[in-house]
Amino acid sequence: MFINFYFLFCIAEDTYNFLINWFKRFPQYKDQEFYISGESYAGHYVPQLADLVYERNKDKKANTYINFKGFIVGNPLTDDYYDSKGLAEYAWSHAVVSDEVYDRIKKDCDFRASNWTDDCNKAMNTIYGQYQLIDIYNIYAPKCNLGQTSAASVVDKALEYSDHEPFRRRIRLFSGYDECYSSYAQEYFNKADVQRALHANVNGMLPGKWQVCSDSILKSYNFSVLSILPIYSKLIKAGLRVWLYSGDADGRVPVIGSRYCVEALGLPIKSQWQPWYLNKQVAGRFVEYHGMTMVTIRGAGHLVPLNKPTEGIALIDTFLLGKQLPTHR
Question: Which EC number(s) does UniProt give (predicted)?
Answer without folding.
Answer: 3.4.16.-
